[in-house]
Amino acid sequence: MTEAAARRRGRGGGGAARRAERTAVSIETAKYIERNIPNFEVLNEEALEIIETNAETVLEEIGVNFVENPAALERWRQAGADVQGERVHIPRGLARELIKTAPGSFTQHARNPERSVEIGGRNLVLAPVYGPPFVRDMDGGRRYATMADFEKFVKLGYMSKWLHHSGGTVCEPTDVPVNKRHLDMLHAHMTLSDKPFMGSVTEPSRAQDSVDMAGLLFGKEFVQDNTVMTSLININSPMTFDDVMMGAMEVYAENNQACIVSPFIVGGAMAPVTVAGTLTQVMAEVLAGIAYNQLCRAGAPVIMGAFVTSIDMNSGAPTFGTPEAAHITYGAGQIARRLGLPYRSAGSFTGSKLPDAQAAYETSNSLNMGLLSGVNFMLHACGWLEGGLVSSFEKFVMDADQLGVLHHLAKGISMDENGQGMDAIREVGPGGHYLGCAHTQANFKSAFWRTNMLDYKPFEQWAEEGERDTMTLANLKMKQMLEQYQQPALDPGIAESLAAFVAEKKASMPDAFS
């Protein structure tokens, strides 16, 4: 179907879409977080200057590799870098100069304008888990993910009040061929949710498919003038930029779509064991990656990422929620702000195999450090389990509930007349209670954050209901949400054009599972 035909179909289906919108159940989504609390900073000015100087030394003297990408090497030569084979030595100050064209904040548009988000500044946008090949729930245990699982996660994300973003690869559906699954995943995000979403990065042509499908959903001209996708571009730490990720980034940058340029570091394995050493490498890598992004298209929206954790020196397994990871996350936030870039880090990280006490401790530490470090885009905000190998349905629901805590913490403390509460103190006086006073009656609905998940019932009622633990409650909540799910309205012409695009693309190539 041609673009013009798709537009004609869209106009013809407008009345049906408007009728569907009027009858659809409205799902409440909280606005992205706007912080009214200070960022927590662990590095003083001297420490920051040392890290910046060392990062520039890494770029100039050691260099970074851009592998199997002659076009990237030529771009660097033209920009003034010293290219030796696939090693790029970036003169001191060049990368800093190139990244000045990157915007400090940008809007990612959702197909429902009320769900659009502002990434950067004092804002925090929360997005779900990304990338696990396995899923887990109480009914089916741990198993390879399927497309049906993927669609359930998209629906849960759409239904979750505190989650602002539909995400990307919320799990990796292994029952669909590798070369075709991105089409089904994007189609699910575009049709089962109306929140912002992420594009595919597993191959440059798949990034182009993402741009083309976004053109059908939003209109081609709108996509070229506005950001409608945010996509994850991982750096192969230490200091290697592969052709697949860079190829996908080139597509997105050239089409004005946002990229998260993010080192993927397990400290002690892919970076030094020290906090300052790791921050030096993080800064060198993001400077090189974001500078290259701007060489592709000056002014393209970009996010500085830092996925960093430590390693268990006994087993070699990654660890989460550790103080070292917090130090690095706080420090990287300071670096991002000095560079004037939006910042991505943190999430519901845990190495636990189940949504248990270990998962709760590690996740709580990781979420709070994300809030306090000034993160603007938090990927993996809910559902992460087993070091990122598993997307957990129960933990998705548990984490999504706890994201409400971040919203309320970020509000800070109100010091207006109502916030001071002096009327209540005067009314009650010594020896009284506040339950029935006018101030309490006026504020009780909004005074305290309320969980939709956790159990605060008396022991006797809890026992009568079967002594259910949090994972059991989450399983019930997840099933209830899926039962109540209703697909958000979409113009029938657009829906048809998207379905036709996916069908034609899939029919044009044989299945490939590697």
From TrEMBL:
Ranges annotated as spanning the membrane: none
Top EC category: transferase
Keyword Oxidoreductase recorded: no
Swiss-Prot/TrEMBL GO biological process terms: methanogenesis; methylation
InterPro entries: MttB-like_sf, MTTB_MeTrfase
UniProtKB keywords: Methyltransferase, Transferase
Isomerase keyword on record: no
One Pfam family matching this protein: MTTB
Region (Disordered): 1-21
EC number: 2.1.1.-
GO MF assignments: methyltransferase activity
Family as reported in the entry's similarity comment: Belongs to the trimethylamine methyltransferase family.
Name of this protein: Methyltransferase
